[in-house]
Amino acid sequence: MKFHSTKKSENDKSVGLKEAVLNGLAPDGGLYMPDTIPKFDGDFFQKIEGMSFPDIAFEIAKYFITQEDVPESILRSMVNEAFNFEVPIIELDKNLYVLELFHGPTLAFKDFGARFMAVLMSYFVKQSKNKITILVATSGDTGSAVAHGFLGVKDINVVILYPSGKVSMLQEKQLTSMSGNITALEILGNFDDCQKMVKQAFLDEDLKKSIILASANSINIARLLPQSFYYVYICSELRKTGKQIVISVPSGNFGNLTAGLIAKRMGAPIYKFIASTNINDIVPAYLATGIFNPRPSLSTISNAMDVGNPSNFSRMLELYNNDVEKMREDVCGVSFTDAETREAIKKVFDKYNYIMDPHGTVAYLGLCDFLKNSDKYSGVFIETADPAKFSEEVEKAIDKTVPIPERLRTYLHRKKQAVLLKNNFSELKDFLLNKPQNNHKKYK
Ligand SMILES: *Cc1c(COP(=O)(O)O)cnc(C)c1O
């Protein structure tokens, strides 16, 4: 399997998995995509029936990762190591399901992509015997999932950029309290600024000369591919309902949704996707008008979706040959305000005694909007974070305390350690050039 850049520059050749994973971003600044999207064999869904999530993940991974990239026995143990947690499907009501993707170590769905990428990258780095620095911009959850995946891995340093004051208290604790090979940079800007600084770092000639950078954002193909696995899993589980499957995805940078579109292209029987966003509705607006108009992100209570220029949009465009009509056949877009989100958190709690986090709630609203009480479909919304990660907001909405899972509680008393930087690329560059490898940190 080879990968090419979404920019399709003339002199860019397709590269193998290892190069695509270690490069992160293609040299022309585009994002890697598989040269062809593999198709499941005709009996694939019979074969995976009743299989566990890691078993299904392994069966799909083999379509993208060949023996030359990673020997099959190693791939098998990578999958087991990365997905060592539950993937529950909750039936909230008739034809209404929640796919809970927050049972990994950092309590957000980012663990799927980040943990798989970490095992894959560690394997490739070990082969190359280089020291690498992983640069990652986070709107809240990516940073800790990536850092957790790489914590203590030899020859890999992780530098996380997060927007100051724009992540929840527990998210910040998670981001800033892992020491050792992990450094958190608190940027005086928003997520888009962080993302821009990371992109710029990859194109900077001076940095290229002095350190080996790798990217760990959802732009890395190793994060994107494993996110397709749970779409296949849910299809495998819901096939028996005999109804068409509709999945609502709470979206920001659109890695999650793009992975779903890839799963569908491979042959997963998904009738429709709903791109559910908060008021950062760039993609729903594109679906409505055919015009992609990125703009600065606005802060909301579903902060991990506060993205004004979704990176993965270029991959979505490629999947549909820039044809908005074609994309509309598979995807509808819809956006919601914070007030609607708060109200739905309360409504669902009162009706089902189920606590949603603000991100999953946006997906819930998108699903309800599509289903409009029809029982034609099996409707699924993706819950991407444990509500305890956003307890400040959720507790206000339901007027009750949200239980904090043990593995999140351990962060509560940890000390924040972050380096404060201005929203300015030269600050990041200086930091990377002068500080690099280990630990001269300014503690706050
Ligand atoms: C990152 C994130 C999202 C958005 O996912 P994208 O792949 O960026 O669209 C939604 N919810 C939570 C909790 C997240 O951390």
The outline comes out as globular
Largest sheet: 6 strands, mixed
In the residues, how many domains can be counted? 2
Order of strands across the main sheet: 3-4-12-9-10-11
Instruction: Give the overall pLDDT as a whole number.
Output: 92
Any overview of this molecule?
With 444 residues, the protein is an alpha/beta fold. The chain folds into 2 domains: 86-109 and 223-398, Rossmann fold, CATH 3.40.50.1100; 111-219 and 412-437, Rossmann fold, CATH 3.40.50.1100. 43% of the residues lie in helices and 16% in strands. The chain is built from 20 helices and 13 strands. The strands form 3 sheets. The chain has a 6-stranded mixed sheet, with helices on both faces. Strands 8-5-6-7-13 form a 5-stranded parallel sheet, sandwiched between helices. α3 (53-64) crosses α11 (229-238), α16 crosses α17 and α16 packs across α18. It is globular, with a radius of gyration of 20 Å. The relative contact order is 0.14. Residues 108, 110, 140-141, 218, 250-256, 304-305, 359, 384-385 line the site of pyridoxal-5'-phosphate (PLP).
Detail the topology: elements first, then pairings.
Layout: E1 3-5, H1 17-23, E2 32-34, H2 44-48, H3 53-64, H4 72-82, E3 89-93, E4 96-100, H5 110-128, E5 132-137, H6 142-150, E6 156-163, H7 169-176, E7 182-188, H8 191-203, H9 205-210, E8 213-215, H10 221-224, H11 229-238, E9 244-250, H12 255-266, E10 270-277, H13 282-289, H14 313-319, H15 324-330, E11 331-335, H16 338-352, H17 358-371, E12 377-383, H18 391-398, H19 406-409, E13 419-422, H20 425-434
Helix pairs in contact: 3-4, 3-11, 4-5, 5-6, 16-17, 16-18
